[in-house]
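Thread: "does anyone have the structure for this chain?"

Original post by V.I.:
We have the sequence but no experimental structure in hand. Need at least a predicted one for the grant figures.
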Amino acid sequence: MTSREPTAAGESCGEDRGDAGTDAGAATDDPEGADPRLSRRVRETPPSGIRRFFELAEEVDEVISLGVGEPDYSAPWAARSAAVDALERGRTSYTSNRGKRELRAAIAGHVERYGQSYDPDEEVLVTTGASEAGDLAFRAVVDPGDTVAVHQPTYVSYVPAARFAGASVLDVPTRAENEFRLTPADLRRAGAEAADVLVLCYPNNPTGATMDDDDLAAVAAFCREHDLLVVADEIYAALTYGGEHASMATQEGMRDRTVVLNGFSKAYAMTGLRLGYALGPPWLVSGMNRVHQYTMLSAPTTAQHAALEALRSCETEVAEMRRSYDRRRRFVLSRFREMGVDCFEATGAFYAFPEVGGDDEAFAEALLAEQNVAAVPGRVFGAGGEGHLRVSYATGMDELKAAMDRFEAFLDGR
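Reply from O.Q.:
Generated one for you, tokens below.
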């Protein structure tokens, strides 16, 4: 396992390429005078809510970036070696649309640790990143005029992907006082009983929040009562601290109405290899594959060989990375407490979500200008994110220590 230099602020990164996408809840007509020859859906999708911020960061020397949603490690050596070996042996042809059968079987075995049980022949689909899996899920189940409920703050790609599939999007704000867990009360307040699909992202990007079985059981009851399908993004499932990952798909009555998204980007530090997977009942996975076979055809072959080896022999490296993230998590949270900054105890992914109050975008810009520290304004991630920053601790401890010192100096100077 090797650590590498964190990506410079402003570069787009792996699954977090969505950070250069859209504000989670925003939609405007023809942003920035988009050419009318573009489709209406594209024209109504605004440019990045943080594009200007990262453009500013690129102009600053010696920036410490706490903004990237990407591991600061390289993929485990055994996985990289498997990729190289596959190339050297000329294994560069298409695989099955659904992915290599051997890999699908390994994925099915791997997720048993989360209480999930899937048939590799009918219920597993290998995709080009978890992002493609999400796009396929929306296109497979959404008809024009359907409503997709998206709890927020959350990863910024869900809203545009749902809209590209023809859906209307319903924002469902979660609350800091509930540690950003989704509750039936949140769903009722937003009117989600009228929705057709619910997006669930736990462990959560950007907050680091997690939900346990009791939390999920309450949301599952709401979904059953109101006949909602669930798109459950569990890309950070392996990165939980202090408790085991709980999945919506294992809740009573939810297996046949849930598609689980996961992949190799976060836990295995394989962001650039672009490999993910979807798990779900046969009717749903078959529908997703029908779209997949006409668009992507099959996921990258070389990446599939790397992923197979990662599942076979790289769990020690994953555990080491998780322990490292946990040490950094505890350090960052303790420093925020020492500064008097409100920040609930994030228990998943590799983000903290401190409350900075007021205009989080202005705060982030000033932090960058005065202390050369880049963090992402919380409003980018939708309703409920205002007044917070997303701080990624997927960077080296030396950089984190320096960044926290600069953060404290910035607060002292205000």
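V.I.: this helps a lot. The radius of gyration is 20 Å.
O.Q.: and The chain is about 35% helix and 10% strand.
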